[in-house]
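Incident log, support desk, overnight shift.

02:14 A customer reports that sequence design results differ from what the structure should imply. Their input is reproduced verbatim below. On-call engineer (initials T.W.) acknowledged and began investigating.
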């Protein structure tokens, strides 16, 4: 990385976006094939909510280095923030093909699929992330919840009980186990677990709604 790019990146990291942008643009004028500067300028543009510009810069970076998984990941995130989910998924899948060892990429894919209620693909993505980072409790919980939504209750219970052993203060774990018990007909245990989830997250209306539903 050039000294000039180091300076721009330092301004960028400090939140001095206008100064960083000015230097990135200077670099691109001087070095039209500097893919890293284009990528960073794309990231910065998206931070300034100039998503079309950001995507154009990122596309230009990918044209110069199409095998860089990070570029596709950043482009995917840009599309997601712009609301173009299908394009975001395409970019994230390409990133995952280029770097199958990145838990971040698979977790981002899982989050994206979950938001569009594609729980089967979300589960597969979280499972990949979990294999790469087995100690990351977020991956375990998300895999457990997606397993519930795909009807795989035994796998879901296994994931969530594994997460519970690591940390019993996360409401989503108790929520997921509660849903499993409720759907298995054990309403008493379901209520106890949902009460625990509600204690940990008292502002969550869904927990209160389910407590009332299970109590009927």
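02:41 Re-run completed on a clean worker. Output:
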């Amino acid at each position: 990385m050039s000294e000039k790019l180091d300076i721009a990146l330092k301004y960028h990291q400090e939140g001095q976006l206008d100064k960083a942008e000015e230097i990135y643009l200077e670099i691109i004028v001087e070095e039209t094939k500097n893919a890293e500067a284009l990528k960073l300028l794309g990231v910065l543009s998206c931070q300034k909510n100039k998503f079309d510009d950001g995507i154009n810069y990122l596309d230009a970076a990918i044209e110069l280095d199409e095998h860089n998984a990070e570029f596709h990941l950043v482009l995917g995130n840009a599309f997601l923030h712009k609301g173009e989910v299908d394009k975001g998924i395409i970019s994230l899948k390409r990133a995952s093909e280029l770097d199958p060892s990145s838990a971040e990429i698979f977790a981002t894919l899982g989050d994206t699929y979950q938001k569009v209620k594609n729980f089967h693909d979300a589960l597969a993505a979280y499972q990949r992330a979990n294999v790469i980072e087995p100690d990351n409790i977020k991956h375990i919980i998300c895999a457990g919840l997606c397993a519930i939504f795909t009807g795989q209750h035994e796998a879901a219970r296994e994931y969530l009980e594994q997460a519970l052993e690591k940390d019993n203060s996360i409401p989503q774990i108790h929520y997921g186990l509660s849903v499993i018990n409720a759907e298995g007909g054990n309403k008493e245990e379901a209520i106890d677990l949902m009460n625990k989830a509600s204690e940990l997250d008292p502002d969550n209306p869904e927990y209160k709604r389910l407590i009332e539903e299970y109590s009927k």
